[in-house]
Amino acid sequence: MSNAVTITPAIKFFFKTLERRSDALKNAQIMAQQRYKEVPIDEVEHFFRAIKGQNIFINTVGVNGKRESTILAKAIFNLNKVIRLYYSVSYDDRQSGFIRIRTDVEAQTIVVERIHGIRPQPELLYHSADQCHIIRFMTRWLLRRIDWDKTKLDNLELYKRFVEVQREETEAMIQAQIEEEMLAKMETIH
């Protein structure tokens, strides 16, 4: 039995059509890649990694369905440029939920979505192309949920460094003003 198949006009037509379709798909992919740039989310990821390591507690709904205080290290998960912040973890799937922050390449924005319940549908809370706006939105979201009985600013290492940097900047500004005044006095003397 021979494995040789005769190339008929129908087979030629079929493969020429396949070639055209393959080229069209390759061109479409190239065009799509050129049209959609990667949306930067690095600053948002850095923000959540930095605060995750602090002793900041937020009020969440616990496994038993009651309000409890959870440290951010247990509530924030970051994987492949997608950030999840759990606000409710329960045996009852209808009560489980989290905030998801991800990029939307087609819209060229960063979106903040709420995902809650069984077979959840993402609920758009906020979106912006600017990472600073996303951080501002999430800061406000977190502020309403911080457990101030357990979270103390003086116990946060990052806050201590923040205060130190502010002090150094203030000292540098005062030193620059003193030098300007001295220079002005020297010019008036001469």
Keywords:
five-stranded antiparallel beta sheet
Can you describe what's shown?
With 190 residues, the protein is of the alpha+beta class. It folds into two domains: 42-151, no CATH class; 152-190. Helices cover 46% and strands 23% of the residues. A five-stranded antiparallel beta sheet has the order 3-4-5-6-7. The chain has a two-stranded antiparallel ribbon with strand order 1-2. The radius of gyration is 28 Å and the shape is flat. The model has no long low-confidence stretch (mean pLDDT 88).
Gross morphology is flat
Number of alpha- plus pi-helical segments: 5
- The Rg value, from CA coordinates, equals 28 Å
Task: Give the total of beta strands.
Answer: 7
How much strand?
15-25%
Distance between the termini: 110 Å
Which class do the helix and strand fractions yield? alpha+beta
* Main sheet record: 5 strands, antiparallel
How many domains, in number, for the residues?
A: 2
* Helix amount: 40-55%
Query: Which spans of ≥5 residues are poorly predicted at pLDDT below 50?
Result: none
Q: Give the overall pLDDT as a whole number.
A: 88
What topology, given as strand order, has the largest sheet?
3-4-5-6-7
Output the helix-strand order.
HHEEHEEEEEHH
Please describe the topology of this protein.
Elements lengths: L8 H27 L6 H11 L4 E5 L5 E5 H4 E4 L2 E7 L8 E8 L4 E8 L6 E6 L2 H13 L13 H33 L1
Antiparallel strand pairs: 1-2, 3-4, 4-5, 5-6, 6-7
Helix pairs in contact: 2-4
Brief description of this entry?
The protein is α+β, with helices and mostly antiparallel strands. It has helices spanning 9-35, 42-52, 72-75, 131-143, 157-189; strands spanning 57-61, 67-71, 76-79, 82-88, 97-104, 109-116, 123-128.
